[in-house]
Amino acid sequence: MEMWYTEKQTPSVSLSLKTAKTLHVEQTDFQHLAMIETEAFGRMLVLDGMVQTSVMDEFVYHEMITHPALYTHQNPKNVLVIGGGDGGTIREIIKHPSVEKATLVEIDGRVIELSKQYLPEIAVALTGNPKVDVRVEDGIKHIQESKDTYDVILVDSTEPVGPAVGLFSQDFYKGIFEALKEDGLMVAQTESPFFNADLITNVNKRLNNIFPHVQTYLASIPTYPSGLWSFTMASKKYKTEDVNTESLYNIDTKYFTLDILKAATRLPKFVQDLVKGD
C-alpha cells in the first residue's frame, strides 16, 4: 500500500510526496513534529503539517538565509540565529572565517534533539563546535535582553503561525535593531511572493520604518509553497550593491555564489511591486 504525505499549502494548493516510512511523530510543548522519509526528497522535518526542511533541497534555504548577510556585512564576528533548530543555518555561518561566535536560540528543544538524530548532515554543527552556543529559550525574549550585541541576526522562523507569529511583528524588528551593533544587519525568511504577497509587503513596510536599508531577494526551493521563496535583509549600514565581490573569499556551497549575492536582489516586476506596496 502506497503512503503519501500531503501539505495543504493554501486552501486550493497542496504538495503531495510519496513516503517510504514515518520515522517519528510527537506533539511537543509548542507544535506537532514529524520526521518522515520521502522518496523524492529523503528525510524531512515537518512542523504543524508544514515542510521545514529536507535533506535534498535544504542547502538552498540555509545558504541563502546566511551567506548574503555574512558577505554583505564584510566582518561578522558575533551572529545570532532565532529559530533554525535543525542546525542548517548554524552550519553555514561557521564557514565564514571572521565568525567568532554563532548563537542559536530555538524555543523548541525537541526540534534540536530530533534533528541531531534524524538529520545529522544538517545538524552537524550543533554538537562539539567551540564557536557554537545552542540555547533552548524564547527568541523574542532573548532579543529584548540583548542590546548592541550582534553583528548579524538571522530570523530562521517557521511560517507566521503558532509560536512564530511574534517573529514578524514591528516590535520584534525594533528589538532586533537595538540588539544589533551600529553597523549590524538582519535577514528574515519572508515566504512565497505567489502565496504570501501581503506578508512581503507588510514586512518591507515594517522594516523600512526602522532600518535605513531594506532589500528583498529570492531563491528557488522546491519543497516550499510555489517553489519560489523570499528573504528580506535590513541593514543599518551595508548594502549588497556596495560589496566588492572580487575581493571576497570563497566558501564551499551548492547554491550560493558571489554572483548571486547581487543577482538575487534583481527582482521580477511583480515582486518589486510587492516590496513597494503597489
How would you characterize this protein structure?
This protein has eight helices and twelve strands. It is α/β, with parallel strands linked by helices and 278 residues long. It has a seven-stranded mixed sheet, with helices on both faces. A five-stranded antiparallel sheet has the order 1-2-3-4-5. The longest helix has 16 residues, at 58-73. One of its GO terms (cellular component) is cytosol. It is an enzyme of class 2 (transferase). Belongs to the spermidine/spermine synthase family. Keywords: Polyamine biosynthesis, Spermidine biosynthesis, Transferase.
Q: Brief overview, please?
A:
Pathway: Amine and polyamine biosynthesis; spermidine biosynthesis; spermidine from putrescine: step 1/1. Catalyzes the irreversible transfer of a propylamine group from the amino donor S-adenosylmethioninamine (decarboxy-AdoMet) to putrescine (1,4-diaminobutane) to yield spermidine. The protein has 278 residues and is of the alpha/beta class.
What secondary-structure arrangement, pairings included, does this model have?
Blueprint: E1 3-10, E2 13-27, E3 32-38, E4 42-47, E5 50-54, H1 58-73, E6 78-83, H2 88-93, E7 101-106, H3 109-118, E8 132-136, H4 139-144, E9 150-156, H5 170-179, E10 180-189, H6 197-208, E11 213-220, E12 228-235, H7 258-263, H8 269-276
Parallel strand pairs: 6-7, 6-9, 7-8, 9-10
Antiparallel strand pairs: 1-2, 2-3, 3-4, 4-5, 10-12, 11-12
Family: Belongs to the spermidine/spermine synthase family.
Protein name: Polyamine aminopropyltransferase
Subunit structure: Homodimer or homotetramer.
